[in-house]
């Protein structure tokens, strides 16, 4: 049975917390034996947000660079190439042809809005959710809990860039982009 862990998000910007989630997935006992692939899917535009700072193609490029050396990881352009908001269920339905079992990875910060996701009840029947922990957020027992001890948020980073919280391979590019963008906004 072919299985996949699908990890979607805005990744605006990608940071060490995202990298830690993928590393934790790779280290889970059941991942090694049962998960064939981890697919990272950056959104073109998060369905719950009105915009983004870094364009989708740039976020996609950064993620490809960050995860290039991870054997089980691929970065998908599925949602980026659609150039619109793509509900999670649409991405999952596209993967159902290739995978019999789909794990859907979310950050604990997404739990509050999860039941508002488009066709949530159907999505819940198609996937098993894995929730990456975040300080101050309780993960209910009906989800698989992924312990990630990195407390970084993209929204906080957008306000105040910190090189030490960015993946080493493209930290300079990310810093430069967000500093220039923030300077234009002020």
Question: Can you walk me through this structure?
Answer:
There is one protein chain. The protein is an alpha/beta fold and 186 residues long. It has a single domain (3-185), classed as HUPs (Rossmann fold, 3-Layer(aba) Sandwich). It has seven helices and six strands; from the N terminus they run βααβαβαβαββαα. α5 (120-126) links the parallel β4 and β5 (127-132). α4 (88-95) runs parallel beside α5 (120-126). The mean pLDDT is 91. Catalyzes the reversible adenylation of nicotinate mononucleotide (NaMN) to nicotinic acid adenine dinucleotide (NaAD).
Major sheet attributes: 6 strands, parallel
User: CATH superfamily membership, which one?
Assistant: HUPs
Q: Termini distance?
A: 52 Å
Radius of gyration: 16 Å
CATH topology: Rossmann fold
Q: What is the tally of helical segments?
A: 7
Q: Which strand-content bin applies to the residues?
A: 15-25%
What is the helix/strand order? EHHEHEHEHEEHH
Helix and strand composition category: alpha/beta
Portion in helices: 25-40%
**Average residue-wise pLDDT:** 91
Runs in which pLDDT lies below 50 for 5 or more consecutive residues are none
CATH architecture: 3-Layer(aba) Sandwich
User: Which shape, going by the Cα principal axes?
Assistant: globular
Query: Which CATH top level class fits?
Result: Alpha Beta
